[in-house]
Amino acid sequence: MEPKLTHLCYCLLVFLPLLSQSAIANPSSSPNHSNNINFIVSSCRTTRYPTLCVKCLAAFASKIRCNENRLAQTGLAVTLVRVRSTTAYLAKLTKARRVKRREYLAVKDCVENLGDGLTMLAQSMREMKRVGRSGRGREEFLWRLSNVETWVSAALTDETTCLDGFDGKFMDGVVKMAIRRRVVHVARVTGNALALVNRFASRHKS
Questions:
Q1: How far is it, in rounded angstroms, from Cα 179 to Cα 52?
Q2: Which of 8, 13, 31, 173 is the most buried (most CB within 10 A)?
Q3: CATH numeric code, 68-203
Q4: Where is the signal peptide (predicted)?
């Protein structure tokens, strides 16, 4: 297995169980649930798509617990899962017999871009955990935080590049619409995650 895939699988193994446990848990069992939800809603107001942000994170309120670092980590974890799902969907399209060559090449390039983005997101998740545990001084804390911002931004750029590949009229309208809908969604989720990371950073850089 390639090294970057190994790292990605590791991150999924670490974070997916946490997300699943939070999603399954009964929110009403916690007396602080309302405060946790209010914290998510308030934090999501800083994102470009606040309704989508809340929808993605509300199920994990008991895990986040009004903690800005855990909020950013969860946002990244949710983003990684959704980008991974979209990448798998596009990879299947490249194997469909009815896909024309130009369509195949565009989808293949998109899969590669999203794959690069997955690597950046996986790195960001690991680094964000280190930010939360950093005890080596402010300089290292800010350096790791800057890494996260850079890598998530790079993942968003990869997703935008993927969308650019579907400009023009060469692709079947139905296929193009299905792809764009999925990639636009993950780009918005990624943008929201980046906004939450930036929010965390701005509060700790000043």
A1: 19
A2: 8
A3: 1.20.140.40
A4: 1-25
Q: Give the residue carrying structure tokens 């190994």.
A: 6
Contact assessment for residue 102 and residue 157, using Cβ atoms and an 8 Å cutoff:
no
Q: Computed over its alpha carbons, how large is the radius of gyration of the chain?
A: 18
The whole-model pTM stands at 0.83
pLDDT in tens, 63-93: 999 999 999 999 999 999 999 999 999 998 8
Question: Which tokens hold the place of 83?
Answer: 């980008």
How far is Cα 108 from Cα 106, in angstroms, rounded to an integer? Answer: 5
Query: DSSP secondary-structure letter at 60?
Result: G
Question: The tokens 């602080």 sit on which residue?
Answer: 32
Domain limits, the chain = 68-203
Two tokens, residue 103: 């369509």
Amino acid at residue number 13: L
CA distance 174 to 152: 30
| Structure-token pair, residue 142 | 């800010």
Instruction: Identify which of 159, 148, 75, 79 has the alpha carbon closest to the alpha carbon of residue 116.
Output: 159
Whole-angstrom distance between the N-terminal and C-terminal Cα of the chain?
42
